[in-house]
Design brief:
The protein is α+β, with helices and mostly antiparallel strands and 296 residues long. 42% of the residues lie in helices and 15% in strands. It is built from twelve helices and seven strands. The N and C termini lie far apart (46 Å).
Length: 296
């Protein structure tokens, strides 16, 4: 058990207490995924979002939550039958976490649950010889949030991905163009109020830097589901670019940088971030050929 955790920790180069805490959280994320993979969860659901991008596609920033979506709409879907699979996997590695579900508010189609354990106790399991454990408060918690969308937009594509630790397991995940569609939707439609989510912009740069095309028909479905575009509009790559140019012109990029600093190691890569930078790189945005899937 300790050997498996050590194998997973050996993949990290931690220099600070925050690095070590993030490594523990990420390992717990993978343990939870391995637990879910022992059930039929990934026959009904797909993994997506920033953590999916980090674990399976190499995104170089820490991501806090595990985001899932049903493959088909089911407002009565429950996470509870899958708790035991996660719990058993966690306990098999000598760890103690509890799972609890957050009561759904109003008419939201997002269901949430949390995996929670004592931070100091588990820090000592992962880092038995560390001198930094004294800096962790006795009541501090490690908390992993799960969210699942019960009403998924149409036309996403998925693929199967594999990991070897803590045990070999298989996950159904949105492919990169469909993940990119979700990220662009967040940039266009997210209501940031007083706090811009800089991680959205970091991921946007990552997708473009890795030459990822966007699943345009899936993005159109997402935007229409949230009433972010006219329901009669047929989205094109050129109309999408115009929407993004306008959105970037509205953004305070100093606030964007401030939000993303805690999640990355090299903050100097953000020096170029500005309205003109994001508008310029958007010129390289491309799309997959999804016209054949419009009538699926």
């Amino acid at each position: 058990m300790v050997t498996i955790l050590k194998q997973m920790l050996d993949l990290y180069e931690c220099k600070t207490l925050e690095d070590e805490k993030n490594a523990v959280k990420e390992i717990m994320q993978e343990i939870a995924l391995a637990g879910l993979a022992k059930s039929d969860f990934f026959k009904k659901c797909a993994f997506y979002g920033g953590t999916a991008l980090r674990i399976f596609y190499g995104l170089e920033r820490f991501s806090e939550d595990l985001d899932f979506t049903l493959l088909t709409t089911d407002e009565h879907f429950s996470l509870e039958p899958y708790y035991s699979f996660i719990q058993n996997t966690v306990e098999s590695l000598g760890l103690r976490f509890e799972i609890y579900e957050k009561e759904k508010q109003g008419s939201s189609t997002i269901k949430s649950a949390f995996l929670k354990g004592n931070a100091k106790e588990h820090y000592l399991i992962f880092y038995p010889n560390s001198r930094l454990s004294s800096l962790i408060q006795s009541g501090e918690k490690i908390q992993i949030k799960f969210e699942i969308d019960l009403d998924p937009p149409s036309f996403a594509s998925t693929e199967l991905k594999y990991r070897l630790l803590p045990y070999p397991y298989q996950v159904r995940i949105y492919d990169k163009p469909s993940l990119f569609a979700g990220k662009i939707h967040a940039i266009i439609a997210r209501n940031w109020k007083t706090r811009v989510k800089g991680r959205d912009f970091y991921d946007y740069v990552f997708y473009l830097a890795t030459n990822t095309p966007v699943n345009l028909i899936h993005l159109e479905a997402r935007l229409k589901q949230t009433n972010s575009i006219d329901p009669d509009l047929s989205l094109t790559i050129e109309s999408l670019k115009k929407m993004l140019y306008q959105r970037f012109a509205e953004i305070d990029f100093d606030a964007v940088k401030k939000d993303v600093y805690p999640f990355i190691k090299d903050v100097h890569q953000l020096d170029l971030w500005s309205v003109s930078f994001f508008q310029s790189i958007t010129e390289g945005l491309s799309t997959v050929d999804s016209s054949s899937r419009r009538d699926e």
